[in-house]
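call fold(seq) -> tokens
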Amino acid sequence: MNKQFVSEVRAELTEHILPFWLSLCDNINGGYIGLVDFDLLRHPGAVKGCILNSRILWTFSEAYLLLGDGKLRSAADHAFSMLCRMTDERNGGVYWSLTADGQIADSTKHTYNQAFAVYALSAYHRAAGSAEALERAFALFDAIESHCCDEGGYLEAFTEDWRPESNEKLSENGVMAERTMNTLLHLLEGYTGLYKASKDIHVRERLLKIFSIWEQYIYNPVLHRQEVFFDRGYHSLIDLHSFGHDIETSWLADQALDILDDEELTARIRPKLLDLADHTLSAAFTEQGFVNESEHGRVDETRVWWVQAEALLGFLNAWEHTRETRYLDATLSQWTYIKNHMIDKRPDSEWFWSLGPDGTPNVKPIVEPWKCPYHNGRMAMEVLRRAEKYRKDFV
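ret:
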């Protein structure tokens, strides 16, 4: 691993990403400002999405665990208070969003949203030693298992009182999905965080069930990819290859295997995860960034911020397991592209949402309910953790 690379990533985390998000603290209404437009105008009156707040809470909690900076602990405390306000104390679960002053803006209970709150609360429990955070994480786990699944697996969208509703929020590309790869992936992520925090046997059992669903229905060994959108019977609804989700899964599910520590499961699943990394390396990686997706063979060459971060981390993870130079070369190439193009060099900004293949930024917000510090912040933190682990491999 390259020392300069690690040093630059550390600086990006500590001098750019974290200070930017710290600056968005809303000391009047609580939480963090929910919209910064492309012109860097901040909108304190914008809605506050639970996904964004959960990802901010997760980021500051993990950053505090890594760096030990008290400002990060205080920022996590602030985000935790907002997440508590986003919780439906009567029916259980977290809402989709609140208004800036804390009223319900969108009362949808989406499984994806619950999963991210579990992920965030579990990290905050580890960072702050908060028994309340762990209790809330388990309350959400119970809500998911009571309301969001059937005998076949996990469903998607629900009303405030847990009646099923259509899944506009996580359906796209002209289909309406009853099950999605994306929701299952982030349930795996959230439950992995909860298991890491608690070692609870019931959480472990559900993680094993999620891996079973993934292996049986999501992973396509013939096409070396994950299918994305499904009807209730797991029939794929569209010929879509989401390169970003595949490379994200390749390392995120691998991390779950490490935490579960099941030799038979690891031996069965890890080669499939490496298959995803290998295929995306050939299908989506270029020296000018990682392309987005392919629908019916038509490639969308947009360079999306989260996809670039996950590609770097996925290739680094594949290098750890294989020590194949091509993966380390791709990791370093991804970083070169990110630092030269994806990072917005304007003062008081962060990363662009996306770029065209020629490097031109698309006019999209720097912050909004989906644009968050979790992908790029996590990438940076994982690089630092792995650099410490593999210090002897520095060159």
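The domain at 3-393 is CATH 1.50.10.10 (Glycosyltransferase).
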